[in-house]
Structure formats: structure tokens, C-alpha cells
Amino acid sequence: MLGLSAATLAGYLAAIAVLMITPGPDMMFVLANATRYGTRAGVIAALGVAAGEAVHVAAVVGGLAAVVTASPVLFATIRWAGAAYLIFLGIRALRDGRATAATAAERNSRGGGAFLRGLVTNLLNPKMILFSVAFLPQFVSPATGDVTAQLVLLGAIFVAVQLTVDVTLGAGAGRFAGRVTDGRWSRRISRICAVAFIALGVRLATSG
């Protein structure tokens, strides 16, 4: 398939599976939206995250990601912006965790903005840039086919798998939260996500 052997694809899917079970900002964001604002918000957040990853893949194909990683100033700017945004999300989730259950109107209004917030969360994660630049090319073989086509295929597979996992997580968490009528479970998850966001933001800000 476009120069990719069955063994290469199998190894690639195995590597993706390991990455998907490791909690990160994207997964926490989807979970936080689903538990607080319902299934619809969780699914929309997952779509936003997937759109962000699609942009990263396009940047790799176009060579832009390599330019970003080669510029210490630009990369540091993205890193600091990403750290600040994660801490902002943590503070917001902490505030939500102290609030009462979201009303239907609030669920709709927050759900509608979940796509953009998911997109920004992914785009401002410099580790996704590094991942895209360092990970995808490992499975490309210039000797067996067009490099660009292989990168597009690998990127599309990654986005599809990530979207499937995040949509499943968002839908499941949203449905479960909807059955807990007192809202205590969703508030607890919001607090857990808040701590995770802030910790991830601090870690990103202090990492090299």
C-alpha cells in the first residue's frame, strides 16, 4: 500500500496503540468536556483534537514542522504558549469542578466551543510537533514509493485512530456522567482534569 509493507503497517499500528493509552492533554481535554458538558461536547472536543493533529501532519508533509523544530525561539514560544494554555484549562476545570451541574443551555454553549478549544490544545502542544517530525518518518521508506504519499497515509491513519479513541472516550464518559444525576462524579473528574492540566502545563514550561 503506497510503498508500505504489511509488517510496517502492523508495527506502526502497534506503536500508535501504545501512544493512545498514555494520558495526555488531548485525552484529558476530551474527558473533561464529556464529563462536564455531556456526550456532544466530548465528541466535538475529539473532532477539534483530530483537526489539530491533521494540521500537524500537513505541516510535516509541507516541511513546516521541521522549520519550527529548527528554530529555538519559535519552538520555545509555542512551548510557553502551550504551557500557559494548559494551566488556563486547569484553572477553568477547577472552577467548573466547584460549580453545580451544567444546565442544558450551558452544555450547548460550551459544547459548541469545544472544537476550537480542542484544536488549540493540540496545536499548542510542542510535543505533538516533535512527535510528528520524529515519529512519522521512521515508517517511511523512500526506496519503496513516494515519500509524500506515505507520510499522508501514515498521518491519516494516526488521525483516524486518535479520533476513534477520543470519540469513544468522550461518548462513554458523557453517557456515564449523564446517568449520575447529582453531578458529583463529573465535578470530581473536573478536579482531576484540573490538576492534570496544571501539572502538564508546569511540566511543559519547565522542560527543556
From TrEMBL:
UniProt xrefs under PANTHER family: ARGININE EXPORTER PROTEIN ARGO, ARGININE EXPORTER PROTEIN ARGO-RELATED
Record's keyword terms, sorted: Cell membrane, Membrane, Transmembrane, Transmembrane helix
The protein's name in its UniProt record: Lysine transporter LysE
Membrane-protein topology: Multi-pass membrane protein
Residue ranges the record marks as coiled coil: none
Transmembrane stretches, start-end: 12-31, 43-67, 73-94, 115-139, 151-177, 189-206
UniProt subcellular location: Cell membrane
